[in-house]
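Input structure tokens:
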């Protein structure tokens, strides 16, 4: 998420330090220590300004929610929302989701949310899309088998690309819709989602059941080279 640079970013971040995990790698395999009674560990990648994050955490107090956002200007706004709501079950990491395997242990996550990611529309940038099989390979290593990815986007071409990637990786899809709110609001909406729903833009959504899969050798080699 791109935002203007904040002149007062550091003091605002400091006021929200209780919600920020500065060294997330130290919690790899032990995230539930942040909430020992948590019934599940959910992770949201690209939380933006955090409306969905805060409302999801508030609606599920028995779940530990970790939000990932590489734009610190957006993340501080998200943390401020959590602080204002006095939430105790949500924490934030400023990092690139490409490094997710450095932060979470194999099968540590129960559910992963991907909400309205950058579509990277140019064909040459397809591998940057968060639903490209290279990313799916990473997710399916850290999300437990039969755990789920919940995915939403307003971008129809990106959704079709994503559906093809899920199928190519042998991942089961369920509750797939290309007009989520056609008959009334369904679930918790992001701020971005509210804006585009109000404009009449259909929202695409599906749930993906995770399982291990093997990338073709040439793709795996290229992925490792890029890392």
């Amino acid at each position: 998420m791109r935002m203007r640079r904040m002149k007062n970013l550091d003091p605002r971040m400091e006021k929200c330090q209780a919600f920020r995990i500065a060294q997330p790698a130290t919690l790899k395999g032990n995230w539930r220590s942040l909430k020992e009674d948590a019934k599940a560990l959910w992770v949201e990648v690209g939380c933006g300004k955090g409306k969905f994050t805060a409302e999801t955490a508030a609606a599920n107090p028995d779940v530990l929610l970790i939000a990932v956002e590489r734009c610190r200007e957006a993340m501080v706004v998200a943390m401020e929302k959590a602080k204002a709501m006095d939430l105790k079950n949500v924490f934030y990491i400023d990092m690139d989701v490409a490094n997710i395997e450095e932060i979470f242990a194999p099968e540590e996550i129960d559910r992963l949310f991907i909400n309205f990611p950058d579509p990277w529309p140019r064909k040459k940038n397809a591998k940057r899309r968060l639903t490209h099989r290279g990313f799916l390979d990473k997710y399916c290593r850290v999300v437990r088998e039969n755990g789920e990815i919940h995915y939403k986007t307003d971008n129809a071409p990106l959704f079709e690309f994503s559906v093809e990637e899920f199928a190519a990786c042998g991942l089961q899809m369920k509750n797939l819709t290309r007009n989520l709110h056609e008959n009334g609001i369904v679930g918790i909406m992001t701020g971005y989602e509210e804006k585009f729903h109000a404009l009449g833009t259909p929202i695409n959504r599906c749930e993906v059941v995770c399982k291990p899969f093997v990338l073709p050798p040439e793709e795996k080699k290229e992925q490792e080279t890029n890392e």
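The helical segments are 9-15, 51-59, 72-84, 100-103, 133-142, 156-168, 191-198, 217-226. The chain has a mean pLDDT of 94.
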